[in-house]
Specification:
By secondary structure, this protein is α/β, with parallel strands linked by helices. It folds into three domains: about 130 residues; about 140 residues; about 80 residues, Pyrimidine nucleoside phosphorylase-like, C-terminal domain (Aldehyde Oxidoreductase, domain 3, Alpha-Beta Complex). It is built from 14 helices and eight strands. The chain is flat.
């Protein structure tokens, strides 16, 4: 848009003088075509994106919508098409008001040619992207990538640079949130700086994904009292929003994967293949879980954090599948195999995986009517 608006001024500073003369109609016709076509393409792109969001919400889980909205390819395509439309409109206005001289029209034409190349490349990428955008496999992959990224970050530093939680000493002062919502991020650098500046110990109570309110403490302070300014700074270190986010909340990704499988196994959908794909995704994600061994306390700041339990994280992903998939032979077999493999890959999670497998076996015996299928399911693992 800047080039279209200031092409006449830019042309005066060019060291080379173009000898050819380009008429206004030549450039104006091309810009008119771009303006009309880009408006239609932008409208089509918005329609396709909204349709993909709706499909992900109805077929997979509403939690996946935020991942679809943040898709970079869609954002780049839409911004390119809209930018091309605005460029064309500004160029047409400049031509009609005789803002450009001969040199300016040459600069405008060269910029238009470059814009056409950019639009064609973006349009080809956008068409290829639309072939999979919003499909079930695409949604599962996006949720798995988000869950895996959060889980990998959690595995690298389960306590965010602090110390593992300990028994709370007596006399601790409670700090609560100033609004109701989910904790989506904790600024550990701020907490550490405040703890060291005021000589206090901070015991974090609300991890990302926790719903906080006036009766749910964010943290507790041990040591000398702090002033209101420091207390407000402690509260600001916690980002509280209306909805949970995947970035720092590994449990949300597991819950979303479980919801996708649960909806696929609903009688109205009856898609065991999707449930099996989700079970495989859960196995890959949960394999990143770190061991329970706490880090050494030497040189660590006096900020104590709990960590999500192995039991609740594994249950987040499998509970809906165990409940809804007990009547599907192929799903039950795959879940039992994955739980057995997960127990071997994560010895510290063996008790949880064994308990979930026993729960699934009980559900299979209660739900599955075919004796032959029951024998294959329980005897094939």
């Amino acid at each position: 848009m800047a080039v279209a608006g200031f092409a006449g001024i830019i042309a005066r500073w060019l060291p080379y003088h173009f000898t050819g003369d380009i008429g206004q109609d030549a450039v104006g016709t091309v810009l008119g075509i771009i303006a009309s076509s880009m408006l239609a393409v932008t409208t089509f792109s918005l329609t396709a994106m909204v349709s993909a969001y709706s499909s992900a919400t109805q077929l997979a889980t509403p939690r996946a919508t935020q991942l679809m909205i943040s898709d970079r390819t869609s954002q780049n395509a839409l911004s390119t098409f809209l930018g091309a439309f605005v460029f064309a409109v500004v160029g047409i206005i400049g031509l009609q008001t005789r803002l450009y001289g001969g040199q300016g029209r040459v600069v405008l034409l060269l910029a238009t040619i470059l814009l056409i190349v950019l639009v064609v490349v973006t349009l080809l990428r956008w068409i290829a992207h639309l072939a999979a955008f919003g499909r079930m496999a695409d949604v599962i992959d996006r949720v798995e990538d988000a869950a895996g990224s959060a889980m990998a970050a959690f595995a690298r530093d389960p306590y965010g640079g602090g110390r593992p939680a300990i028994a709370l000493p007596p006399g601790a002062r409670t700090v609560t949130a100033d609004r109701i919502g989910y904790v989506t991020h904790i600024d550990m650098a701020d907490l550490i700086a405040i703890a060291r500046e005021h000589g206090i110990a901070i015991h974090v109570e609300a991890l990302p994904g926790t719903l906080v309110h006036s009766d749910r403490p964010l943290l507790r302070i041990v040591g000398k009292d702090v002033d209101e300014a420091a207390e407000r700074a402690l509260v600001k270190a916690f980002m509280v929003e209306r909805h949970r986010r995947f970035d720092h909340d590994p449990r949300l990704g597991l819950i979303a994967l479980g919801e996708i499988a649960g909806r696929a196994l609903a009688p109205a959908t009856n898609d065991p293949g999707t449930a099996i794909e989700v079970v495989n995704a859960l196995f890959r994600t949960l394999s990143l879980l770190p061991a329970e061994a706490p880090p050494p306390d030497a040189e660590l700041p006096p900020v104590y954090l709990p960590r999500p339990g192995i039991d609740e994280m594994i249950r987040d992903g499998f509970v809906s599948i165990i409940r809804e998939g007990a009547g599907e032979e192929e799903v039950a077999q795959r879940v039992l195999k994955i739980l057995a493999a997960l127990g071997k890959a994560l010895p510290h999670a063996g008790a949880t995986t064994h308990a979930l497998a026993e729960e699934l076996r009980r559900n299979v015996r209660r739900v599955m009517q075919d004796e032959a299928a029951l024998a294959r399911t329980l005897g094939g693992v």
